[in-house]
Amino acid sequence: MMIRPKGLFLVSFCLLMSLCKAQERPTVWFDGLSRSLFARDAMGAASPVDSVSERSTSAGYNLLDLNVHVNPTSDMEVMAQLRVRNELGGFFGTGTTVDVRQLTLRGTIDNKIRYQVGDMFLRQTRFTLFNSASDAEVLSAGFQPYRDVIDYENFYGDNRWRLQGLQTDFSLQFARFIRTLAMDAFITRPRGSVLTSSGTYLSDRLLGGASVVADITKQWQLGLHHVNLFEVPNSGTLDVAVRNPVHCAVVHHQQSGERWIHETTLHAGTSNRAWVFAAEDQNDLTSSGAFWELDSRHESRDSLWNWNVGYRYVEPEFRSAAAQTRRLDWSSAMQPSIFATYTNDQLARRLSVFDLLVDPLLYNQALAPQLMQFNPFLSNVSPYSDATPNRMGVFGSLEWGGMKKAVNAALNLTALSEVIGQGTENRRRFGRAECRVHWAAPNLLNIEKGVDVTFHSKAELTRRDGNELEELDLRSIQSSMELKAGLSDALTILASASNWTASGEEFLSIRDAYGNLFNFEAVQVDRSDWIFASGLSYEWSKHTYASIQYQWWGANDRDGAISDFQYQRLFFILTIDL
Amino acid sequence: MRNRFILPSLAVCAILALFGCVKDGYEGPSLNELFGEFEIIDSLTLSTTSPDFAIDETVEFSATFNKPVNWQLEIQGLSSGGSKAFSGFSQALDDGAVVWTGTSSSLPFFELEDCAVALIIANEGVLLHDTLSITGLANFDGIRVADFDAGLPEGALVWRQDGGNMTFQLADDNPLLGTGYFKMGGKVGWDWSLGYIDIPVDFSDATVTASEFYLNLGVLSGTVGIPATDQFLNVSISESDAPFDDNQANNGADVFGAGNEVYRHQIRPIDWNGWEFITVPYADFEVKHEGGDNIRTPGDITAIRIACQACPFNASAACPENADRDVQTDVDFLIFTEYSDLFGQE
After folding, report:
1. C-beta of residue B279 within 8 angstroms of C-beta of residue B214
2. Mutate to test the interface with B, among A198, A288, A388, A426 (most CBs of B within 10 A)
3. ipTM (interface predicted TM)
């Protein structure tokens, strides 16, 4: 049994603080989550000849995350999340771990100022501090149990980054000039000093920030946001430290009419990223950039229609570590956790979309000051979400929820281009169309509890004109369809099919340690990943359910340069929200 | 009301649009250069083809291309098989960017021999050749503690058990570098420890931190038969300022005993055949005895112990096969380097 007493200091501090004030009897209460997961993987019939690897493998675990909440006073709470995890096949302590997964102290001072210390989940704007969904998660109809696991294990909730530090916020109300003023400030440490394999110590990396949001009138709101990712040079042995302050102003206007509610939001800001060297004879590397976005949203009073249109401009030099850090970092050595090699030649199997949808260990939780590498097979238009640098263009969406809310259809369109060309004066042009339709058919096929049909598709196009070296044409389409038929109020039978296809060519940017673009890697993409799944699900509530599925998945390389593969999985999960 | 809102919005958009224009030029290197036709402007040249590294001569390589490329420069000893490699991405090898001081990237080390030089630009299918002849061996930068070419280091103490086939002596039949090395091995069934060599040192000139201070040591195994199960070296470093060997009654030096500031690193297991070269930063040593400030300080090092240990076949049920195997953990060329390990030197 392995016990990791993380944050003992924090616990001691919290308990001491609570004892100092605890004149009244403390309240203790519990919640949490329990999960049992089992997966048995096997080679598919169409897999290439492989007598070296095992034909099938199975793994699973049981875990309990017990959240202990202690309220020493009515305005203070200490929360510790303890995890007990037992790998399948582990008995009498073997393979069992006990871990402190979260520790937080939160409360209010005089019922006016809120604070929290320890683990926290922070978000600001999409350009300053924001945890965008990964390319693979965007399209995962039928894979909600897996997605729940990935989000939960990596603390991805509500587009927030999990950080450790100190945060406080409060709001003021005024009688004249402005109605309310809310302020929020935090200082966190995304990375402590780390000893690397080369024997050097990386410096402490801190993230601080503040927000001031004022409701000026009922219609107008003004917000000012600031974050700064920076390193403390004397906490490590490297002679360079990064500074990345980002400023953002948000003006929001809301107007309600008889039939429509109109909202217009303007984001504008600047960033500066500097690598500061200790040596006096070495010049600092600095880049500054700006962005702005105007978004106009309109929603009908009856919620039947919803549409928006906007324009976004992000300069090539705009760098915002806390908004541009990706959940999937393709520059790191990501390996599949199952069937990592295949064929009799023991080729390293490349990651398929199935791996990305099911393996929480592939995902990143650490903020990085450099742009992470992305995979154009999955996403090439906005790999760093709305904060993607070197993009300008229009975007819009139209959503309709009709037939007494039985149908929900949405269409998102984006047309962007580069602000400056990469490697050539010709600029890339990007297009993206995303369509999502959900139909809750109450009496289809005489099934008593009705049928839910979900269709989701996303197509991307990247083009660049020029000579034969500069010309680009990359197309991808990702489609997913899910059918759910209710056999009773809680029991559902489901089937889904998903396909990811891309073909064309692209140049990946190769950057040095300071983010300078110094080379390009030409990549040819011509592949297709697919997943079919069917199973049963029993749902007691939204977060308490059991699901058993059989899944067939694989990948095809159309040019035949890489061997195709095909696998199957039997999957069971029981999740209980305590 | 709506006009009051729309007009200012349009004005703001117009102002912002002024700052939202496309930019001239392009980011990064030119694609036409990178992926265009490759040309060699200046072919591979060497500053000297008969370097005498013993007198600190170096070889400077230069070449110029018409565009940045990924290149690899390899030097291969035609007699020893030693090799040295440099790599990079640039448009030229110039301005002293690639300078060779006679070191190697891995074992074996270079001898006085002819070497083949190859500059490989793999993406362009280009290979440039040249040759050179080493007339003097490299002086490695660092603090050389023991090379065993002229006997044991001054003041060194050797202690060993009374086991079977015990070596713990100088030899010259298979040195890693130079003419001699130190054999450490034998057969002891009742104890993990077979013996050790203690060497007094003075590192007071060292100013780097522990993470930048590297121990480098050649270790020979497997030439007298199958390596014994779980044989290893226990390297201890003492920062004690006590006298090295005042007490003549005990085995070995005094500064490694309890109460002295001692750090330890195990090279474990030693299961290879032939020479291997081990490099480890001092920061990776663990505390063995808490006799000081527990801060690894290279400048305070006063003594080094290299201890030979192995699973005892009588005292442990884990390794009965060791009754038929001799332990062999011979050592050569103990040198401490600053900033990088020995193979990281140019």
Report:
1. yes
2. A198
3. 0.82
